[in-house]
Write a structure and sequence with these properties.
2 copies of one chain form a homodimer. Chain A has 201 residues and is α+β, with helices and mostly antiparallel strands. The first copy, chain A, has a single domain, classed as Trna Endonuclease, Chain: A, domain 1. Chain A contains 6 helices and 14 strands. In chain A, a hairpin with a 2-residue loop joins strand 6 and strand 7 (98-107). In chain A, helix 3 (120-131) packs across helix 4 (153-162). The first copy, chain A, starts with a strand and ends with a helix. At the A-B interface, strand 5, strand 6, strand 7 and helix 3 of A face strand 5, strand 6, strand 7 and helix 3 of B.
């Protein structure tokens, strides 16, 4: 019997079932035309894997929501609220005592990553992270190529602030970013890259 | 002119106005009977101060909300949602490259801090933080005494898991916790304690 962090236990039979289901969903996932849309799911599953295997602890920040009205007559149902713009990044956590902070984005473009969907607040946040000795990067997926890269935040900040073009060319990724290996578990194994470029050196 | 992180600029005159307002609100705050309720506000203001002065970067995690229904006809208004239980902690961030993680709580009790409002998930989360070399603690206010302490997570975990009583006696705080100095700016100066007990040693 294996005990999972959600408190459930699984017998080997259950695990087989679970794996069979996962393999087929993985296949479905890999063949899916809009696989790029599932980047967040892949990262969340990888973080869960890392946590279960005591490798690191990375959590997703909840989406900030501004609550306007709550109906307490039905037990605190929110009846009026709106999404706020994320002023930080999606993920942060700890690996070997070090602070980790990153944002995940995907693009359908084959030639470049457009900077339009990164906010000024996020760039400011990542600059602060670097200033305080944190590890800051982006995980960027070129969905049409089925390639996912880890790119240090300093390059994104540089392009954001000095770039004449409002995008980072794909060639830049092949030059300075690190390709993340896709697999079964973890689905996106980005931790060895952190070890290699931030911890070892 | 001073430029604030929110993008606004203030002239010296504005700052004077701002400070006058802040002093009076501070006085109101200090004389307030339910000052304990404002612990979160004090921590947020202190974090803002630390960020402005380039001392560290600590952010508050948004409250997790499960969105059930969104009305797109009015521009993405959430019309049905509910609060989820926080499975991690309220705050995390980076200081001198190190990962910081903490939860803030207040009690009206004069004799002990009840563990009832700390969830098992939060204890599990903090155990993971410690396991990966992060700095983990609680900021706990005894509102009736106007005293705020920083208490290392290991003590809370110990009491949570082994304590015969479901609370931590006030005497334990005077013995192993560190009293946080209240002031004008930052309102709760907890960073020197982190420097002293986690970084220096």
């Amino acid at each position: 019997m294996i005990k999972y962090s959600n408190g459930q236990t699984y017998s080997p039979k259950d695990i087989k079932k679970k794996e069979t289901k996962s393999v087929s969903s993985l296949k479905r996932h890999l063949s899916s035309a809009n696989r790029g849309m599932d980047l967040e799911g892949d990262i969340n599953a990888s973080n869960e894997y890392y946590k279960e295997h005591d490798l690191c602890l990375i959590t997703k920040r909840p989406t900030p929501i501004n609550v306007v009205k709550v109906d307490y007559s039905k037990g605190a149902i929110i009846t009026n609220a709106y999404f706020e713009k994320q002023s930080t990044t999606d993920y942060n956590g700890v690996y070997k005592g070090r602070y980790i902070d990153f944002e995940a984005k995907q693009t359908k473009s084959k030639t470049s990553f457009p900077l339009a969907n990164i906010s000024k607040h996020q760039i400011e946040h990542l600059k602060h992270v670097l200033e305080h000795g944190g590890i800051a990067f982006f995980i960027i997926e070129f969905a049409s190529k089925n390639e996912v890269f880890l790119l240090d935040a300093k390059y994104v900040i540089h392009f954001y602030e000095n770039g004449e073009r409002k995008s980072i060319p794909y060639e830049k990724f092949t030059e300075v970013a690190h390709k993340i290996k896709r697999g079964f578990a973890p689905r996106l194994d980005y931790l060895p890259i952190i070890e290699e470029i931030y911890i070892k050196s």
